[in-house]
Task: structure prediction
Amino acid sequence: MKQVIALFLLAMGLLTACSNDDDNNNVDPKEQEELRPNPSPYDVKIDGICYQLVHKSGIARVVSGDVYYAGNVVIPQTIENEGKIYRVEELADSAFCGCKNLTSVLIPNTVTKIGKWMFKDCSQLKTVTLPDGLENLSARMFYQCSALDHVIIPESVKTIEQEAFRGCTSLPSIIIPESVELIDWATFLGCTNLETVRLPSSLQHIYMETFAHCTNLRSINFPDGLTSIEPNAFAYCTSLTKLSLPESLTSIESRAFVGCTGLTYVSLPSSVIKMGDQIFEGCTGLTSVDWSTISIMPGTFLDCTGLTEFTVPEGVQEIRSDAFTRCKNLAVVRIASTVGTFGTRAFAECENLADVYYYRDRLPDYCVDNVFEDSYVSYATLHVPASAIEAYRTTFPWSQFGKIEAIEGD
Result:
């Protein structure tokens, strides 16, 4: 008897399961749309898109409404409601924000304004067609769109606001049109697949963290009119290999190229008059530097273990604290006679330092005792003008050197 009951229950269960499957197959797909927990007000929904209507002007605005949009969305140029035609001209703030199943969006040329956070966290979004005539890419427009692999920025765009493409880890390249005058901070932060960027000639500033952590960035042009590079602008761009900066550049701020481990060559123009700290800290692949500015700031080459030689040219007046600290393979340093200031631990922990050439015929104006701390200079040779040998031999820390010799030809 128990076996009969068990078989009956099993049969009923299978019938119920099949019945449920049939019911699900007949459900309208629109009824399966994921509802938003905090819907925004809207006037009408047409073909699954929610709109607010401005009746007097006949304008329609796309809004988030009560659902998360999914799949391929085509926004029309016009819609009709109660016999009246409305022109679609705007996408309201966050209209598509968080739509994780959205894959593509086609925006018509009637749209002139796209609000903030438009496609933020749309993790499956691959392509977006932007309208001609658009003047602004708004803040966090494509923030964390990790599947986005192609975007054409219209020639009409003048500004790209902060974090517009942050975290777009599938984007391989970007061409920024000549119309763009401003690229705000952290625009491409964390775009780890980005390899090439073409910047417009009109660009004057590269703001904070604009390309930070773009670990595959290999090629970027620096416009001739560029005047400043802000903090961490290219931090940890580990695939950059060479930097030839334009003569228009006047300012490079702190940690601008920190952690660019693939960087091998740097050429700095004499036009740079403002330098921040730790600009090339941790650039372990750096082997060649053409330096033309008046100061080497704190931590500029901290942990640049690839440096074996360095020439501080005439005109440089100071080498600040930790400028070359832990450059463990630095063997030969040539220091111009114009250098009169040495900061704390400027050459500390340069354990392979072998020869220091200092062309000044008198002692520096300011030099701390620990400038060569833990660099084993008792095994190194200091080369100075013959007329100044005695002064260096009797003055700490120069007296620490194992040998002090006259510069040949002096």
User: Anything to note?
Assistant: Confidence is low (pLDDT under 50) at residues 1-32. Helices lie at 2-25, 389-393. Residues 2-25 form the longest helix (24 residues). The CA atoms of residues 305 and 327 lie 5 Å apart.
